[in-house]
Amino acid sequence: MQTIALILFIITYVLMIALSDKRPYVALISAILYVALGIMPVGQIVKEIDNRFREKIWNATFDAGRVERMAVISNGAVRMANLCVAVCHKVNGVSALHSDILKDTVFSDFYALTPNKFTNVTNGIAHRRWLCQANPKLTGFLTETIGDGFVKDADKLLDLRKFKDDKAVLDELGKIKRANKEEFAKYVLKHNGIKLDPDSIFDVQVKRLHEYKRQHLNAFNIISEYLAIKENPDGDYVPKTYIFGAKAAPGYYVAQRIISMILELADMINNDPDMKDRLKVVYVEDYNVTNAERLMPAADVSEQISLAGKEASGTGNMKFMINGALTIGTLDGANVEMGEACGKDNIFIFHLKRKIITIPIIIKGLPSINSSNPTPDKLPISQKVIAGNFSSSSATNFINDSIAWKNADTTVPDSTSISIG
């Protein structure tokens, strides 16, 4: 019972850290567990785990440096990741790429001693929810075309490949996609007051708002397209609708600034007569599972553009693809395995690979606008914004903040550590 209680506490504590920007008080939780369950205070338990684990590593390696790197407690702080690996039965990276990262870098010392503990089971989704429930039109047509066996066995969806050159089937799939886009457009008009063109490309990025997921990179691409239309309003452009949906922790200042930037872009672009419905931006309010079930069947393009090596797996990428969206992204997380499964015609990969990015790249340096005296049309988007080519205070502030952060001391405490008495 005591062991079960300890395991449940560790799991709960890690989840609380992951889901909240406020950490629970260790002393308070220790007292509750002591009174309610009659077990020793948590701090005492963790210290005992650390002592026994240090002894185990020393006896196996006689390497003081490795003992300190693998220790559960260091300098009075509990290393939550080390604690989890030390006491768990298996370590899963949730995608082939991320599992390799854990073995090669993050937990290389642990892997060297206990290689059999490390495994990989790539994340997945429940297709009965994200296809059968979320997209009844597509599900009905698939049932008519290949039978209903895929409802219980997703591998049966492979039977659809025999129709890849069937014009009638492809036309019907296109009609279903447009119908789903029309339904989502009605929802946006009702809740956001923005009229969308179902014949435009619905380019979607919905996920937690985080720097490594790079919603700001998507926003800068939108700025680029907006400026191109402004500079040549009579040009021939494919209509695009960019759709965002994300939430961020209240204390995550940078994420809040990115949200403000995207909202300001949407307001400016959607009300600019020069756009003529060729460019729209929508930020879905209160993005949640219900909204996801509306949006994913309507998406044409799925944005999976995280910095390579930073996304553990991702599941939104799978939900979009099973509903017929093409993927644009980096070689990160489950994108790698998805690309191997679906082929290069359905996923478009760009930017650096994980093995090239050996350390986290937070903010790239922005060269001086006057360094090479480029012509205005050749300026990077960030410099065009700073130079005043783009009238968005949020975008300008975000870039200026990025430069300041780059030049400042960005050292922060280990986010997986907690102080312990």
Strand content: 5-15%
Mean pLDDT: 83
- Gross morphology is globular
What would you call the structural class?
alpha/beta
Let me know the number of strands: 11
Strand order of the largest sheet: 7-6-5-8-9-10
Task: Describe the protein in words.
The chain is α/β, with parallel strands linked by helices and 421 residues long. 48% of the residues lie in helices and 10% in strands. The protein has 17 helices and eleven strands. It has helices at 2-19, 26-37, 42-61, 64-70, 80-87, 96-106, 108-113, 127-133, 136-146, 167-192, 215-231, 253-270, 289-295, 316-322, 335-342, 381-386, 393-407, and strands spanning 73-74, 77-79, 91-92, 118-119, 201-206, 240-245, 279-283, 301-304, 326-329, 347-349, 417-419. A six-stranded parallel beta sheet has the order 7-6-5-8-9-10, sandwiched between helices. Strand 5 (201-206), helix 11 and strand 6 (240-245) form a beta-alpha-beta unit. The two termini are 25 Å apart. Mean pLDDT is 83; it is low at 18-25, 356-375 and 409-421.
Short summary:
The chain has about 425 residues and is α/β, with parallel strands linked by helices. The protein contains 17 helices and 11 strands.
What does the secondary structure layout of this molecule look like, with pairings?
Blueprint: H1 2-19, H2 26-37, H3 42-61, H4 64-70, E1 73-74, E2 77-79, H5 80-87, E3 91-92, H6 96-106, H7 108-113, E4 118-119, H8 127-133, H9 136-146, H10 167-192, E5 201-206, H11 215-231, E6 240-245, H12 253-270, E7 279-283, H13 289-295, E8 301-304, H14 316-322, E9 326-329, H15 335-342, E10 347-349, H16 381-386, H17 393-407, E11 417-419
Helix pairs in contact: 3-4, 9-10, 11-12, 12-17
